[in-house]
Amino acid sequence: CGEVEKAQLLTLAPQTEAVVEESYTISVILENVRQGSCASGLVSWFALRQHAAFKEDFAFFPLHRQELIPPPGEGVYAFIALEKDTTTRRALLQIHQPEVANATNVERRMQQIFEESGKSVAAYCELDKLGYYHVWAANERGKKVRSSSATHFLLAEQAANQLNAAD
C-alpha cells in the first residue's frame, strides 16, 4: 500500500502496524501473514480475487471505497483501440458511460492538482441516483473530505481546496 493508504488505515485502526512496501506481491503478503511476520495485509481486492491462495486460510474484509479511499482511477477499466480501428471504436461507444468518464476525470484532476505540489492523494468519485457527483478524498496525513455538486465542473478543485484547508 502507498503512503496515503497507510495514513487512512492508521486513522481507521490506530492499533494497526502498517508497513509501506509497494514492491510486495500478493504471494509475499499472504506468506508474511501466514508465517506471522505481520498480522494483516492491505491489498487490492481485485488483485486478491485473482489469487487462488487467498481462499485457503484467510479471512478477508473488503472495504468500501468510501472507507479506504483508493488511488484515482482504481476499479475502472478502460478499453483501448487503435485510432484507425473505427469499427472497434464505434462498438465501444455503445457501452461508453459519460457519467463514469466524468467521475474518473474528477479523480484524475485531483491527482494532477496534488502531483503539481509533489503530494499524493486518494480520490473516489461517484454519481448518485439524483444526478449529484460526490467525491471522497484523502491525503498523506490521513485527512479526509467529501465534496458534492450537481455538476462535475470544478468539483476536483473544490475538494482539493477542502483537503488543503483540513490539513
From the structure above, extract its key features.
7 helices; 41% helix; globular
What does the largest sheet look like? 3 strands, antiparallel
Helix/strand-derived category reads: alpha+beta
Q: Which oligomerization state do the chains in this entry correspond to? A: single chain
- Mean of residue pLDDT values: 85
- Specify the helix fraction band: 40-55%
Q: Any idea what the radius of gyration is? A: 18 Å
Q: Provide a count of the helices.
A: 7
End-to-end Cα distance: 22 Å
The low-confidence parts are none
Helix/strand order, N-terminal first: HHHHHHEEEH
Strand sequence of the main sheet, in spatial order?
1-2-3
User: Rough shape?
Assistant: globular
Strand portion: 5-15%
Q: In total, how many beta strands? A: 3
